[in-house]
Structures are given as C-alpha cells and as structure tokens.
User: Which sequence fits this backbone?
C-alpha cells in the first residue's frame, strides 16, 4: 500500500510520503509546488507559472520548461510513473494544472477548517481552535522562495488569511479573558506586519489584558516611531484608542484575571485612633508622591489592627488589588522572612510563574517594581524588622501604596522619598473605655470605677484589653468588679517581656486558665515548633493527636490566643508565645517536650519525602521508615499541591535542617535537604539550594552513603550557579564513596553528572568516557532512564567531536527510549540536541522541524524555561546564518516564554536583541 502524501505551505514549502520527506528539487520546481499548494487544489494556468518563474522577459522555451518541471515533480510524488503519464496527484486540466490534496494532507486546508470552526463557536473553545490554527504557521507562506523584494499575490493573500485569523483570535480571547493562549501568535504576526495598525492595536490590548501594560506602552512607542520614520504619518484613531486605554489606570481588570485581594478581615470592634487615621489621610492628600506609611509602636499596641483597618478604608483607591505579607521581623533566627521570600510570594500572586521568577534579589525587586509601575495596588507589610527588610518591597513609581508595621521606629523611612513614619501610642483612657464598651455593652457604663481599674491593670494596651473583653463575653451574671478581682488574683508571668504599662502576665494567665486541659497542653507546646506559624497537621504532630482533634483544639485556642494568617495555618502573638514558653518550662517534663519536637521532625521528614516524589526527581530518595511515635506525613493531591507545600513550609524546613543535628536527628536534616532539591531547582533558588544542602552535608556525620548523596546534590547547585569546578569536586567525592560502597546505580548517576559538566567544559573525549561508564553501570542494574540519559550525553559528545552520523543515530535511539518510558523532559532535550546536530551539518529543513518538535514537547510539559532555551538556540542558528529577522523573532518568542523576567537567560536574550538592533 502506497504511503499517503502530505504537504506544507504555511512556511517553507515541504512534502512527505508517509514520514519520509520528499526532495522538491530546484527553486523553480519548489515555486511551482508552492503556487499549486496556495491554490489548495484549484487550477493554475501555465501562463501563471511562467509569470511566477520569470517575472519579466521569459525565454522562448518557458512553456516547455514549465512542462518539464511538472513532469519531474509528478515522478517525485509517484515514483515509477512512466514518462508522459498523467498521474493521479499533479493533474493536467486542459491548459492548467492542479494538485490533488485533501484537508488532512495540506496545512493550509487544515488551517482554514479550524478557523471556520472557531468562527462558528465562542468562548474558550473558539480561542483554542484559533490557537491550533495559528500553530500550523511556521513562517510566511512559501517562505524562502521570494526574491527581488517581490512576493506573488497568491502568497500575499494566504498571509492575509493568517493576519485576519490573528485579529479574530485576539478579539475572541479578549472577550473570553484568556488572551495568554494566543499571545505568542499575536506577537509573531505583529512582528511580520509592523505597519498594520489594526493588528498592532490588538497587540497593545492583548498585552494589557495579560498584565503587561508597561510592555504595551513600549510597543506603542516603537510603532509610533516606525510609522513616522517609514511612512511619515502619525498613528491612526484605532491605534491611538488602544494607547489611551493603556493610560486609563481605572480600567477594569480583564475577565479571568481577578486582582489579588489578600487583606485580612477588618476587626469588627475597631475603635479610636482618629488622630493617626487623620494623619495618614492628610499625608496621602498632601503628598502625591507618598508610596509608604510605616506604623511603629510597642508589641500589643494595635499596629496590625490599625493597619488592616486603614487598608480597608483605602482599598477602593487601589483597583488593581491588595497584597499582604507577615514579615515576621522579630521572630527568632531564620524565622524572619527575607525580602526574596516576600517578593517570590508577591510575584506568584501577581501571576508570574515560579520557573520565571529570577533567582537574585535585585532582579526579583526589578520585576516586582516593573509590574507595580503599571498598577495601583495596596501592599500591607506586617511586623517589619528594619529598612533593609522592606526597601526592596516598596514600589518605585506609579500609584501603589505600602502600609507597613514595626515594633520600632525604622531608620531610613524618613529619608526615603514618599515614605512617612507614623507612631502609634497606647490608647487614651477614652479610647480604652470605648473599646470595652464596644465589646461588653452597657455593663461598662454602669460601673465606671471598675472599668477604670481594668484599664489601669491592662495599661491601656489594646491586646490586653481585648483579651479581657473576649474572656468576659458570654459569662452570664459576670460583674466588672469580679473581673477586676480575677485580674488581681492572676499569677501569670512573662519573664523577659515585662512591660511597665501593663501586667500582661495576669491577663494571659487569666485567659489560659479558661482553657480545657488538652488545649492548655497544646498552648504550652506550640512554642516548640521551629516557626511562629504552623499548619493544623504540624500542630497535630506536635501534640501527638489526630488531625481532627488538633483542629478542635486550635479552634478553641483561636478564640482568644491565636490568629489565622491563612486557611489551615495558625500563629501565636509574640507575647503569648513568650508566656507559653515559660509555662511549658515550668509545667511540662523535659521528656514530654523532647518527644513533641521529635514528632514534629518526623512529620516534616515524612511529608517532605511524599512531596518530593510528586516533583518527579531523577533520583528519588529511599522511602523512610515509619515513625516510631505514630506520626504520619501529609498527603498531597499532585505536583502543584506539593510545590505549594514546599513554598509555605520552606522557612520551617530550612530551620529543621539547621537544628536537627543539634537535636540528635541528623537523618532528618539530610533527608529533608535532599527532598527540597527539585523544589529549589524548579523555582531557580540555587543559592538557597546550596545553603540547605550544605547544612544537610554537615549533619551526615559517619554515614558515607548520605554524605555521597549530599555531595551529588551540592554538585547540582554548583552547576546551576556556573561553578563547574566546584560541582566536579563534589561529584568526584560522591563517586569515590559510591564506588567504595558498591552502589552501582548511584555511581552511574555520578558518571552521568560528570559527563554533563565535561560537555560544558568542552572536554568531549572525557565526557564520552564518563557517559559510556554510566551506561554500562545502568545496563547492569536494569535502569533504562539512567542508561538513556547516558546515551544522550554520548550522542552530544559525538556531535561535538564531528561524528555527526553516529550522533544522529544515538539521538534517535535516545528519543525512542525516552518516549517509551514517558519522560517528556528527556524527549524534549533529545529533540533539541538532535536539531542542533542537523544544524551543524547544514540540514536546515530537518533542524528547524525538530527544533519545533522540541518546543512543542516542552510546552506540552509546561517547561517554560526549557522552551525558551530551545528558542534561543533557534535564534542563535539564524543569527549565525545572517538572518537577523528570524533570529529576532525566535529570541523575542523566547523572552515571551520567560514572562518578562530578569533572569540570567532573559538578560542574555535582551543582550542578543540589543546587538541585533
């Protein structure tokens, strides 16, 4: 049975029989096929072929030449066809010819069918159909065949169909709120037609809808310059209207792109503070440059309550949403949130993909400020430590506002343009009475003397007054003198947090004694958790109770002793934490407190193991032994859930790694460090990866296998930090240990890693030897994935050594093996290197086709970083051939994959584009 023919004209003209590509011959023959394909089965006259091939002054033999070309092409499509036979593919129809094609055999017909289907439906389904249609385009119609600046009208008409589809796709995506689906196609079309104002206007609106207002404004400036320079005209009404919509900061957020709304709930009993509220309003009204209000005051004075209330009062002025972070500035040790950690959370909330967030602090801050420059947002920063912690979190320009709180006056605020300090003092007597009246009702007015005594014992501190009021509500028949008596009799203490303004120990002990014994025990154990904030599951492990029981106990504590910064997470005020620490040291045996810490370590070790499996590590950790204390790890629903857990618990896990050895739990330290490797790699936190693995390495002690695993992980961090020599050193140490222990699979991974570094160092012979050694080890152990990875490294080395035929065979074999085991990352990587090898031997059609396969594979796997890497390679290839247009196109598409970040790769791409200009 003859294999079916298929054709492509939406880009370079190509034809295949089955999977084998057909050589279409000379340029004139390719032009003939291009015109036939552009007609999509309709007839083309011989006169049109003559005009196509010679433009002017055709030779006397022109018609005969056309007939000879047609005969040659017939035999290419139907090998063995006798001379002068009519054939069944390229058919003569009187003085005309036509190519017999079906919809599935020609990309142009498939494109038209998808566009028609998209026009017949709406919403996201229409957008997806448009995306599929536009994905069929590889370049202009019949690209590479135009000469002398002349393009045949038939090809121009087909290009016009593409641009019409782009305009329709943009309109549909804007209506459906999913413009990101077709944004790459819009960008490419706009680059092809830089003077098409309708198309450029849609690009501006699409960029704005995708949250890229600054990029849209820059694009408008470029269009305006082009129109002036090349045509001597100004932008028309449609383009100006699109520009004006960018400048309207009050324009509604596009459907499907809801702004973040992270403000905690306003306090229902907020009262007083009229002077500070008025001062804040005056600053905002009097200084249009105001970018930050920093509220300082003593612990418990109500800074957070005021900041939240003020934020809710101002929220309507900031239509692009609100962000919130507790910076934990006065927590102990590593618990303090770093600016990088805060920025990463904000960037995620603003729609930046984790893989696109830069690794360096200055780059994160630059991306954050660039996004805020386009928006009017309110940012609430609670519990700030100092100026260094918050300066990177302030907007640079634009209409956003930061409201921050701190226990102490932050040096640097007054000297920063647009930032103003606000001091919060104790409540006045009248405000304190109003607070109690709002909570306790008429009973306050009935006994002003008792109220005065309560206020005095609470020192007018809002936190203390709130605790008294919460404890008193709902106690039938309670008199205020009785409350005063209970406060006087309380013998709570707060060593180290004594305050001249209030007897907080009495307030806290009074609330503590109202707890059930189980809740009181958990209250005393909570300070043993490594961080100030913990999840319900971690609290269950700490107390050694089921999660359901822990949830009930936390709800009891939450009524007056805890706050909930997020769903399923709990936090204790610092003063209460200090009080709980003293109670625990006094009332609980050391053995019980130690057992609680051990259970927490078990929980994080088991949970980190379960989470890391879902990140598909190349070398999974061995399964840990079950906890001897009855603890079970957290369960996860999938990769996204695991990544979110690592992000939420990163600070806690890092602290556990640092502390575990000191508590006699070195195994937990190094296992958690290894479990975090893929999370750090996927979020580009390479320095944090090195730091945590370094701490884990220090905890391995006399365990050689663990030490080797940590050395290998450390090598990975070094590799991504471009410290190849350091990575090689760690791998050599790991390899020596694995060899001594007879762990062949682990040794194979080390050999593969060394081969990777040697390839980067251009030591191709050594890379080949290490990859061959790895493959031998993996074959012996039956490890297909490892052996295939080694084969890929061998193929790369062969290619760099000039042995291209051998390399191509190895790449094809590696791709098939990766496909067999479902390893998309391996498939995409192999395709990228296969395409590179084709480019080295100047096989342009194969190189471009396989590069596109690699791009499609990585996009299908959601690997934006790897997609961008392939597009950079494509751009480099075109640049090396002197094709600046295609190079720029590929590099811009790569930059779009990175979502405008300031990562090292993005900076390299921008450098390439700058040199191109």
Assistant:
């Amino acid at each position: 049975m003859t294999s079916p023919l298929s054709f492509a004209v939406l880009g370079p003209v190509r034809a295949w029989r089955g999977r084998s590509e057909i050589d279409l011959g000379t340029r004139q023959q390719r032009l003939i096929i291009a015109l036939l394909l552009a007609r999509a089965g309709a007839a083309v006259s011989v006169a049109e072929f003559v005009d196509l091939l010679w433009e002017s002054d055709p030779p006397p033999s022109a018609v005969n030449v056309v007939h000879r070309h047609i005969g040659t092409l017939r035999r290419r499509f139907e090998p063995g066809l006798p001379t002068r036979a009519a054939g069944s593919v390229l058919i003569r129809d009187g003085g005309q010819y036509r190519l017999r094609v079906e919809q599935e055999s020609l990309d142009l017909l498939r494109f038209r069918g998808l566009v028609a289907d998209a026009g017949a439906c709406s919403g996201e389904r229409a957008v997806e159909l448009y995306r599929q249609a536009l994905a069929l385009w590889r370049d202009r119609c019949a690209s590479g065949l135009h000469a002398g600046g002349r393009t045949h009208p038939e090809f121009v008409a087909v290009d016009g169909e593409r641009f019409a589809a782009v305009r329709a796709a943009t309109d549909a995506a804007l209506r459906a709120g999913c413009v990101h689906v077709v944004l790459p196609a819009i960008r490419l079309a706009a680059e092809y037609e830089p003077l098409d104002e309708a198309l450029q206007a849609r690009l501006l609106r699409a960029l704005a809808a995708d949250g890229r207002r600054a990029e849209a404004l820059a694009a408008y400036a470029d269009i305006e310059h082009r129109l002036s320079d090349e045509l001597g005209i100004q932008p028309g009404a449609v383009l100006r209207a699109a520009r004006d919509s960018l400048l309207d900061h009050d324009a509604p957020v596009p459907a499907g792109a809801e702004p973040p709304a992270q403000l905690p709930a306003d306090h229902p009993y907020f009262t007083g503070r009229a002077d500070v509220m008025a001062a804040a309003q005056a600053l905002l009204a009097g200084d249009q440059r105001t970018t930050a209000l920093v509220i300082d005051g003593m612990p418990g004075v109500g800074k957070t309550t005021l900041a939240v209330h003020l934020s809710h009062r101002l929220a309507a002025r900031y239509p692009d949403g609100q962000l919130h972070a507790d910076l934990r500035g006065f927590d102990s040790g590593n618990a303090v949130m770093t600016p990088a950690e805060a920025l990463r959370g904000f960037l995620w909330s603003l729609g930046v993909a984790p893989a696109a967030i830069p690794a360096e602090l200055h780059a994160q801050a630059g991306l954050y400020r660039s996004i805020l420059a386009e928006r009017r947002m309110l940012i609430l920063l609670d519990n700030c430590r100092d100026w260094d912690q918050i300066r990177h979190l302030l907007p640079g320009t634009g209409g956003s506002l930061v409201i921050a709180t701190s226990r102490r006056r932050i040096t640097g605020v007054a000297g920063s343009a647009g930032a103003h300090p606000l001091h919060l003092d104790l409540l006045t007597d009248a405000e304190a009475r109003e607070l109690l009246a709002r909570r306790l009702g008429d009973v306050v007015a009935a006994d002003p003397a008792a109220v005065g005594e309560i206020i005095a014992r609470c020192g007018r501190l809002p936190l203390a007054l709130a605790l008294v009021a919460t404890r008193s509500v709902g106690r039938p028949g309670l008199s205020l003198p009785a409350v005063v008596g209970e406060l006087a009799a309380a013998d709570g203490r707060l060593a180290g947090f004594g305050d001249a303004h209030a007897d907080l120990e009495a307030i806290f002990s009074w609330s503590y004694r109202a707890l059930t014994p189980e809740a009181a025990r958990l209250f005393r154990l909570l300070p043993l958790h490594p961080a100030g904030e913990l999840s319900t599951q971690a609290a269950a492990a700490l107390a050694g109770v089921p999660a359901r029981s822990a949830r009930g106990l936390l709800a009891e504590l939450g009524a007056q002793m805890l706050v909930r910064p997020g769903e399923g997470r709990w936090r204790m005020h610092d003063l209460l934490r200090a009080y709980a620490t003293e109670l625990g040291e006094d009332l609980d045996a050391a053995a019980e407190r130690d057992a609680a810490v051990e259970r927490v370590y078990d929980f994080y070790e088991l949970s980190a193991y379960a989470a890391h499996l879902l990140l598909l590590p190349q070398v999974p950790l061995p399964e840990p032994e079950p906890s001897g204390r009855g603890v079970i790890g957290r369960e996860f629903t999938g990769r996204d859930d695991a990544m979110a857990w690592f992000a939420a618990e990163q600070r806690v896990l890092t602290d556990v790694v640092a502390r575990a050895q000191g508590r006699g739990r070195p195994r937990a330290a190094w296992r958690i460090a290894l479990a975090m490797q893929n999370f750090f790699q996927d979020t580009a936190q390479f320095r944090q990866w090195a730091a945590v693995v370094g701490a884990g390495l220090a905890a391995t002690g006399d365990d050689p296998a663990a030490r080797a695993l940590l050395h290998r992980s450390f090598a990975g961090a070094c590799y991504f930090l471009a410290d190849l020599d350091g990575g090689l050193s760690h791998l050599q140490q790991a390899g020596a240990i694995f060899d001594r222990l007879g762990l062949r699979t682990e040794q194979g991974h080390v050999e593969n890693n060394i081969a990777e570094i040697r390839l980067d160092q251009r030591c191709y012979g050594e890379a080949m030897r290490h990859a061959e050694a790895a493959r031998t080890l993996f074959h012996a152990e039956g490890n297909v994935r490892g052996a295939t990875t080694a084969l890929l490294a061998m193929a790369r080395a062969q290619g760099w050594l000039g042995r291209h035929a051998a390399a191509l065979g190895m790449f094809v074999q590696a791709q098939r093996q990766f496909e067999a085991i479902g390893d998309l990352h391996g498939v995409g990587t192999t395709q990228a290197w296969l395409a590179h090898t084709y480019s080295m031997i100047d096989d342009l059609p194969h190189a471009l086709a396989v590069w596109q396969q690699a791009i499609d594979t990585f996009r299908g796997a959601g690997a934006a970083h790897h997609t961008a890497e392939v597009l950079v390679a494509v751009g480099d290839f075109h640049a090396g051939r002197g094709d600046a247009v295609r190079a720029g196109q590929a590099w811009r598409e790569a930059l779009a994959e990175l979502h405008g970040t300031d990562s090292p790769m993005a900076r390299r791409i921008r450098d390439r584009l700058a040199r191109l200009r």
